[in-house]
Amino acid sequence: MVCIRKATLADIPEIEACDLLCFPDSQIDQATNLSFFNDSILFDVVYVAEYDGRIVGYVIAYMIEEQPEEEKNDKVEDKEECREGYISWLGVHPTHRKLGIAAKLMTAAEKAMVQEYGCEYVYLNVPVSNLAAVSLYTKILGYRFHCTEAKFFEDGEDAYVMRKQLPGKQLDHFMLGFRHGSGCFWSETKAEFLGLLDRLEIC
Ligand SMILES: CC(C)(COP(=O)(O)OP(=O)(O)OC[C@H]1O[C@@H](n2cnc3c(N)ncnc32)[C@H](O)[C@@H]1OP(=O)(O)O)[C@@H](O)C(=O)NCCC(=O)NCCS
């Protein structure tokens, strides 16, 4: 049974081992990789997939930093901030692929970005030749093609930039909870709340 959970610093050696199998041609040295995983777990959104007590997949995502005040011109200042997240790393152990693990990891990261940061959009870069990942993002997870970035990857391969809209800042439970008779109802989302209202006969 697969368990998707937040990563801890103790997971780093196993994440690193999984990463080596997922990206065998990567030219990033081990020290850089380890420090990247360490910082990501401390500051970003990192989930792992555990199968029989062993880490078989991981996803790393972070929020794009808002533009510093001094770089904003008057025009941009009026614009509402858009909270954007970025999926920077995703890998599933070769022996555990095609079991839906990547889809579960991505969904957990997206949910955490919405709940913890009010993320409105998430985007990612995928090598144009990576048909498995392109299919995962477009057919299963609902990402849309945004543009192509030439020579984005270290080996010179182009990247598709893909983007997905997320619910953004959710109305909180207080806003969506209500009492009716002796009952008390709560809903996670506005749509669910409206559905609840539809099903109740309120005099
Ligand atoms: C891409 C990767 C993360 C997919 O992981 P996974 O756990 O096997 O993916 P899932 O089981 O969740 O697959 C979901 C969907 O992705 C697509 N997909 C996954 N593997 C595929 C493959 N080998 N060929 C075609 N489509 C594939 C399918 O649409 C699949 O849905 P389906 O099972 O209904 O056909 C995994 O192959 C991997 O780690 N690859 C190496 C690292 C990598 O490429 N990371 C992504 C970098 S952008």
UniProtKB/TrEMBL annotation:
An annotated GO cellular component: NatA complex
Family: Belongs to the acetyltransferase family. ARD1 subfamily.
CDD domains: NAT_SF
Source organism per UniProt: Papaver nudicaule
Highest taxon listed in the record's lineage: Eukaryota
Pfam families assigned: Acetyltransf_1
GO MF annotation terms: protein N-terminal-serine acetyltransferase activity; protein-N-terminal-glutamate acetyltransferase activity
PANTHER family: N-TERMINAL ACETYLTRANSFERASE, N-TERMINAL AMINO-ACID N(ALPHA)-ACETYLTRANSFERASE NATA
Protein keywords: Acyltransferase, Transferase
Ranges of residues in domain N-acetyltransferase: 2-167
Protein name per the record: N-acetyltransferase domain-containing protein
